[in-house]
Amino acid sequence: MYTSAWALPEHWLFSNYQSAWELGVSGFFKNSVIITVLTVIVTVTVSSLAAYALSRFQYIGRDLFLFIVATGFMFSPQVSLIPLYGLIQDLGIYNTYWSLVLPYAAFRMPIIILLIRAFFLGIPRDYAESAFIDGCTSWGVFRKIYLPISRPIMFTGVLLTAYFAWNEFMFANIFIDDESLKPITSGLFVFKDALRTDWGPLIAGLTISALPLVILFIFIQKQFVRGLAEGGLKG
Length: 235
What we know:
about 240 residues, mainly alpha, 10 helices, about 0% strand, elongated
């Protein structure tokens, strides 16, 4: 690690993966899956509903709400750390999955809402008007017309949200103290201390942590690129 950091290993020890898994990566991996899935569900569900309201309805305060959503880009997670820590303590969700899920969803929603809204603006209004004539409600139009058409942008939202939630480190390291609840990004620190680092299991754990997102992107890369392109056509 210190003399030839970029060289290939002299001996390929695949047992490091088993050691990493048995030393706690399995639990950290499970926690990351739970946190990421919950974050994706909350973010994409709320963002799609908000984007539908912002793109297809006229009401007082719509432009103001859109402006508030857009200002979400101005706030970085690092800047809000101290007040967010106090808020999580007041809500009583410190050291729980929700202490990560809710902040992750909040910081992903601005970009996901704007992307989905831009995609919704490209859907012809004739579809909705025809559905209303046939007796469909606003909820029915959203569920039966907008969601099926918008699969590419939904996949884009899923991947962008999952990437952020899976790889985030700062909140995961501060808002979770219980080792049994830590996600894989902060949980891998059990392999590293001031005097000794188990490089084999640590690097194996990092490889395991990277695989899910790589596999996810491979399966939905076409929908991701299409959704990202079409979601940026209109503002």
